[in-house]
């Protein structure tokens, strides 16, 4: 993507969650839409069943890592006999281009959709120039 901010999804099997630890637990990759505007990049990830308390976003260097853990509330008298869900973890990571400000990432979670906004560096954002009359 020439002259555009880019976000590249990493295809790694294990992701470092905390400094010094590597998680190799099987994880689901959430469905993600990526949008670009003049101000930056917006990621929307479908993460049904994940609450804010079980969601982790981390920027390390130029890598953004998103991890969410599903929590199933079952009555104490219930027992799961079958589940389509093979993993209770969503995980994905992205390499952020140098045009983006990883230190100013904002995120919100509503109705199972995680929205992450990553602004472009100020000098790369479009700006309006006022025309003066003489």
SSE blueprint and pairings:
Elements: E1 7-9, E2 31-36, E3 40-46, E4 50-60, E5 63-70, E6 89-96, E7 106-110, E8 113-119
Antiparallel strand pairs: 1-6, 2-3, 3-8, 4-5, 5-6, 7-8
Provide a descriptive summary of the structure in words:
By secondary structure, the protein is mainly beta. The chain has a single domain, classed as Immunoglobulin-like. Helix content is 0%, strand content 41%. The protein contains no helices and eight strands. The chain has strands spanning 7-9, 31-36, 40-46, 50-60, 63-70, 89-96, 106-110, 113-119. It has a four-stranded antiparallel sheet with strand order 1-6-5-4, with no helix packed on it. Strands 2-3-8-7 form a four-stranded antiparallel sheet, with no helix packed on it. β2 (31-36) and β3 (40-46) form a beta hairpin. The protein is elongated, with a radius of gyration of 19 Å. The model is unreliable at 11-23 (pLDDT under 50).
CATH domain class: Mainly Beta
Radius of gyration: 19 Å
The succession of helices and strands, N to C, reads EEEEEEEE
Q: Let me know the number of strands.
A: 8
State the low-pLDDT regions, or none. 11-23
Content-based structural category: mainly beta
Q: How many helices in DSSP terms?
A: 0
- How many separate domains? 1
Sheet-strand content, in percent, reads 35-45%
Average pLDDT for all residues: 80
Biggest pleated sheet: 4 strands, antiparallel
CATH fold type: Immunoglobulin-like
What distance separates the N and C termini? Answer: 41 Å
